[in-house]
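On clarity, I found the account of how folds are encoded harder to follow than it need be. Since the whole study asks how a given chain folds, the encoding of that fold should be made plain. For illustration, here is how one protein appears when written out as sequence plus structure tokens:

:::
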Amino acid sequence: MKTEDYEKLGSRVRELRIQMGLTQAQVAHALNVTPGYISNVENNRTAMSLRVLIYYARLMDISLDSLIGRIDSDYRGTALDREILEVLSTMDTDKKLKLLRTLKIWNAQE
């Protein structure tokens, strides 16, 4: 990662923590690190290790890509497909049929 990516990451880590209503101590406990480590990350004094990045993304219930803020262009399509499939898997048959009809209409208009 470039230096400017780390700076954005620290801000993103702070922003997500606050949105979730968590303290630095709570996040530190969940990640098995010290509150000082979380403070250093949020203030761009240190970078998270890959292990901690992965656990932080899980804690915040987001993908690692969205935490970092960068998605490789080759991966973007498959990630979108995967997200669509996840939503589809939660739908009942009636909703799937309605969606299919809508997609066919929408696709025919292009």
Remarks:
- Helices lie at 3-19, 24-31, 35-42, 50-60, 64-68, 73-89, 93-109.
- The mean pLDDT is 84.
